[in-house]
Amino acid sequence: MLKVSDDRLADDRRRPVARVRAGAAAIAAILLVAAAPAVNAYSQRVNSACEGDYYRFCSAYAVESTQLRRCIEASRRSLTQRCIDALIAAGEVPRKYLRKR
Predict the structure, then answer these.
(1) Quick check: pTM over 0.70?
(2) What one-character-per-residue DSSP string does 3-61 give?
(3) Alpha carbons 56 and 71: distance in angstroms, whole number
(4) With contact defined as beta carbons under 8 Å apart, do 49 and 30 qualify?
(5) Residues 27-61: pLDDT tens digits?
(6) Where are the domains of the chain?
């Protein structure tokens, strides 16, 4: 009969747990990467309300990019009231922030 040491048995029992943890970590990483573009996404209402402002001030930047957000912020004093209202309603900016014109 083959004898297996207690240490080896303990290692064999831990391996499935380690595999599950590694698998869970991999799934979490994939979900974070997949969700990354959504971080910079504006709502449909903001997209619709700010479309003209985008073409007027920020069309050089990709939609859903950090650079677009910076451009919109830098252009805040020139944005249309419709765009400002949509940004405020979506919680993208505080009400007092864009009222400064």
Answers:
(1) no
(2) ---HHHHHHHHHHHHHHHHHHHHHHHHHHHHHHHHHHTPPPHHHHHHTHHHIIIIITTS
(3) 11
(4) no
(5) 444 444 444 445 567 889 999 999 999 999 999 99
(6) 1-39, 41-101
